[in-house]
Backbone:
């Protein structure tokens, strides 16, 4: 990945916070001939020195079969991103760029049995549906319905073995340039650009 020292976080807690916030990942494997990928929500669990990603995929898909053959995977976490025009720099006759945050987590995937998959689905549903008052809460679903659809789903657990990231937010620019970039992004109609502006203001 395109990585320079000033585009990195100060500590791993910042990286983990980003992973907890941006839960819809791209999970990549290899089937022996081509890369395979799927987009899935995950729960990041920190257990002592171990980091695990928990989620589920559809069974009998190309990526599920690839994960069965080769347990080496990469999970990509992405956040807000935005085009940065050099026209706002003190010296505009220079390269424009793109600001973004991303985390790449390499690891070993383990496919789970039906009981473990059941718990994964319950945990993820409870994360996004309030168990107390949501009509779609897990405990309000018919058990027969759950068991029927469980047959088409395989839970997984990824033990992270390598964690890398790039948090590129114009850290290599002057205070003047960064203030101008934030002003430029805040005027945009693009929601992601406005989110990058918020990220940058937090670091000014």
Residues:
């Amino acid at each position: 990945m395109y990585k320079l020292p000033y585009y990195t976080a100060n500590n791993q807690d910042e990286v983990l916070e980003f992973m907890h916030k941006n839960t819809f990942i791209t999970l990549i494997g290899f089937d022996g001939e081509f890369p395979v990928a799927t987009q899935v929500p995950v729960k990041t669990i920190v257990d002592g020195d171990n980091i695990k990603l928990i989620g589920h995929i559809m069974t009998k898909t190309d990526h599920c079969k690839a994960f069965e053959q080769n347990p080496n995977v990469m999970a990509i976490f992405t956040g807000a991103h935005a085009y940065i025009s050099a026209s706002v720099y003190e010296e505009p006759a220079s390269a424009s760029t793109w600001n973004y945050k991303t985390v790449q987590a390499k690891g070993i995937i383990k496919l789970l049995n039906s009981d473990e998959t059941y718990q994964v689905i319950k945990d993820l549903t409870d994360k996004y549906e309030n168990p107390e008052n949501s009509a779609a809460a897990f405990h309000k679903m018919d058990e027969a319905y759950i068991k029927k659809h469980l047959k088409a789903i395989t839970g997984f657990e990824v033990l992270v073995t390598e964690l890398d990231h790039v948090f590129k937010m114009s850290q290599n620019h002057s205070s003047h340039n960064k203030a101008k970039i934030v002003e430029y992004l805040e005027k945009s109609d693009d929601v992601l650009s406005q989110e990058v502006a918020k990220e940058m203001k937090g670091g000014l």
Summary: The helical segments are 12-21, 62-69, 114-128, 143-150, 175-186, 191-203.
